[in-house]
Amino acid sequence: MKQEKPNILFILTDDQGAWAMRCAGNTDIHTPNLDRIASQGYRFENFFCASPVCSPARASLLTGRIPSAHGVQDWIRSGNLDRDGLKKEIREDPYYLCEEKPIQYLEGMLTYTDVLKENGYTCALSGKWHLGDSMTPQHGFDKWFTIGRGGCYYNKADIVENGEISFENRYITNVITDKALSYLEEFRTQDNPFYLSVHYTAPHSPWEEDQHPGEYIEMYRDCGFTATPDLPVHPNQIPSAPSGTGEVRKSLLRGYYAAITAMDADVGRLLDKLEALGIAEDTIVMFMADNGMNMGHHGIWGKGNGTFPFNMYDTAVKVPFLVSWPGHYPSGVVCRRMCSQYDFFQTLLDMVGIRRQLPDGLPGRSFADVFDGNTEKAGAVVVYDEYGPTRMIRTEEWKYICRSPYGPDELYHLSEDPEENNNLSADPEYATLINRMYIQLTRWFYTYADPAMDASREGVTGYGQLCRPGIYADRRNVFYKQP
């Protein structure tokens, strides 16, 4: 019996800039399987994260809410694991600051996986969750294989499966793929459709050579790394992130590219499995990153919190987004429309033909008409982004970044300055434009932010979130304060 709804394979990477694919014009990097998805379907040139850091972006993707409405405003530092259940190796790791009990940061919020489950989908996760309580399957997931804390070493990952923590000495990218492949084998015998989330930790640091397979490191041994700028380190670069110039720069890029190419090879294994099982034409394949990444762009190494104050350059807020559905969607299409992760919930439901009443106050709008050929939508499109008190409003022509109350603000004329090198915010000529964009920005966040979780009122530092605002602790103690 043929399924009424398509399967979904959703692949999510960690800290991959939109620029870090061969099909996006980067001639240094090798991504034959990402290029394969793009050649078989759509590549979005202007797809934006909701926040340039992992946990808030992932929460917005799942819920359709902005960070100032779901309350995840920085990467999750605590509440992932239960203190009593931790292994000794985790307790002593300074990366992790434990709570007495796990926190489900999205508790009580509707996610698109909840809706898929309601509509007969079997939902499975293989890979990074990083939204709290890694021990417990949540939000419609029937199968749950994840990373305990969120981040991990590539060759010593803490894995959660069946409520137990174990350490995996194999390369974590391969481990995640192997589990996803086993899920696909299971799904071949069922009549209902599946949704499979494959969430890689790649290409997040560490980028040391011993963290990645030698064959991929050697692939970039003699690379000139000409596709990314070679600039002095930005004066606002945070000291805790790896950064550098000269040979250090090449070493960092070598590890970053190796992580992507190793991941790309495993994406190929997933695509090959769909074909071998005879379900490629029954499966929508999507590829996305949680947030963008500066790898020397503007002299910055890191995402939005690679600097303080946080940065909102396109390299940090643009993410890759590829979609293919062989036999149903055209191939080799480049979509230039501006879309955001907070549009994804409504879009996915439209793509699979699910009609459901969604919660009030979601800012997103479906862009599923792209797949009917409307890749150049007429009319103004505006996207917004946030990270703590740093907020962005962006049109095709202009970008305004507001850092209330301390500044400095930024204004870029993108049609004339696409690299965002000339900050016009202090030029009196643009005062009226800035005022107009500020009002538009303020009204939008007033409409969609929850006052109890408004990130502009929190002390977001970029060093992690300890608990959920207004629910689990006094809001003044929500964020980690750097010693």
UniProtKB/TrEMBL annotation:
Top-rank taxon: Bacteria
InterPro entries xref list: Alkaline_phosphatase_core_sf (IPR017850), Sulfatase (IPR050738), Sulfatase_CS (IPR024607), Sulfatase_N (IPR000917)
CDD domains: sulfatase_like (cd16149)
Keyword field: Calcium, Hydrolase, Metal-binding
MF (Gene Ontology): arylsulfatase activity; metal ion binding
Signal peptide segment: none
Residue ranges of domain Sulfatase N-terminal in the record: 6-354
Metal-binding keyword on record: yes
Sequence similarity: Belongs to the sulfatase family.
Name of protein: Sulfatase
Organism of this sequence: Eisenbergiella massiliensis
Lineage per the UniProt record: Bacteria, Bacillati, Bacillota, Clostridia, Lachnospirales
